[in-house]
């Protein structure tokens, strides 16, 4: 694959591919180095973490760090740790007790390829591996930076972030108490999605700024970018669930409506959602203006997220 300064789409594809390859190699070594006593557990972790995926979150972290002169190799441990958390969340979300999915990234989900118990443990192992990685000196020479990364990822992944958002999502389906579904208003849906999906995307950009010892102004610019990108990502995902096909998307579609999940499609409609996507891409690009041409790939990533087909 070749890239050109005049062809940001090719440059983006190249950068995504290079980051994905580096993250996969790092995680393969990390899983081996973590020495799971069970070959079955190691195989399930590899199935979850190494087989496919765009590696968007690691890419955002690497490219955000690059804005402050941090090379990819130096940002790779934090990027791999973030991907561990993302992959663990997919393994657990796919379980029968959660979303009950059979397909992920075009292949059987971990609990289908193995079994429920192995999937739970593989997810647990990936989550804890993330913090093992961040605690190592190669994640950052400065202990204060390592602490900031650990704290940031823990908050993004926990009850005030991704896990809390998943709980709100299940509650909106009527999973608890009397089982009645309570339709959510648009602001409530946005809050849920900001926690469930947006928190890890926010961390990706924040971690790049942490690694680069960025000043407050530039951290805030990246935060505005990641907020807009996270909202765009979720709307695009909701549109794919309505309009996509499983063969292209790589997972079951139409499941949100079947489960009664809260999405902005319900309140905005298809056309309104597309207009909001366009607005959010513009917002993301505007937030990057302070970085000039150095942020070209991040701006292109916002357009890619909005227009993706899988």
From TrEMBL:
Among InterPro entries, the record links this protein to: Isoprenoid_synthase_dom_sf, Polyprenyl_synt, Polyprenyl_synt_CS, Prenyl_diphosphate_synthase
Swiss-Prot/TrEMBL GO biological process terms: terpenoid biosynthetic process
Pfam families with a match to the protein in the record: polyprenyl_synt
**Gene Ontology molecular function:** metal ion binding; prenyltransferase activity
GO cellular component labels: cytoplasm
Question: Which cofactor does the UniProt annotation name?
Answer: Mg(2+)
Keyword hit for Metal-binding:
yes
> What's in the keyword line of the UniProt record?
Isoprene biosynthesis, Magnesium, Metal-binding, Transferase
**SUPFAM superfamilies tied to this protein:** Terpenoid synthases
**Protein's UniProt keywords contain Magnesium:** yes
NCBIfam families, per the entry: FPPsyn
What family does this belong to?
Belongs to the FPP/GGPP synthase family.
The protein's name: Probable farnesyl diphosphate synthase
Organism name: Ancylobacter mangrovi
Q: Source taxonomy lineage?
A: Bacteria, Pseudomonadati, Pseudomonadota, Alphaproteobacteria, Hyphomicrobiales
């Amino acid at each position: 694959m070749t890239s050109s300064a005049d062809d940001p789409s090719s440059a983006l594809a190249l950068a995504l591919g290079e980051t994905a390859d580096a993250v996969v190699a790092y995680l393969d070594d990390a899983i081996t180095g973590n020495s799971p006593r069970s070959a079955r557990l190691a195989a399930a972790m590899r199935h979850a973490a190494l087989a496919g995926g765009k590696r968007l979150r690691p890419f955002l972290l690497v490219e955000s760090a690059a804005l402050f002169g941090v090379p990819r190799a130096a940002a790779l441990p934090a990027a791999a740790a973030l991907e561990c958390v993302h992959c663990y969340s997919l393994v657990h979300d796919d379980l029968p007790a959660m979303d009950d999915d059979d397909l992920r990234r075009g292949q059987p989900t971990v609990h289908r390829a193995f079994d429920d118990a192995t999937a739970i443990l593989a997810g647990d192992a990936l989550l804890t591996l993330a913090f093992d990685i961040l605690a190592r000196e190669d994640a950052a020479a400065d202990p204060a930076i390592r602490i900031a990364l650990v704290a940031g990822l823990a908050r993004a992944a926990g009850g005030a972030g991704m896990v809390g958002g998943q709980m709100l999502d299940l509650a909106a389906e009527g999973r608890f108490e009397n089982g009645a579904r309570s339709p959510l208003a648009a602001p409530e849906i946005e809050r849920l999605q900001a926690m469930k999906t947006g928190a890890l995307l926010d961390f990706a950009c924040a971690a790049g700024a942490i690694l680069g010892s960025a000043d407050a102004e530039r951290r805030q610019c990246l935060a505005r970018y990641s907020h807009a990108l996270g909202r765009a990502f979720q709307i695009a995902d909701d549109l794919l669930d309505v309009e996509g096909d499983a063969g292209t998307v790589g997972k079951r579609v139409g499941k949100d409506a079947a489960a009664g999940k809260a999405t902005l499609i319900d309140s905005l409609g298809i056309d309104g959602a597309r207009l909001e996507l366009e607005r959010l891409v513009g917002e993301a690009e505007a937030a990057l203006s302070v970085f000039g041409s150095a942020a070209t790939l991040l701006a292109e990533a916002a357009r890619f997220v909005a227009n993706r087909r899988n």
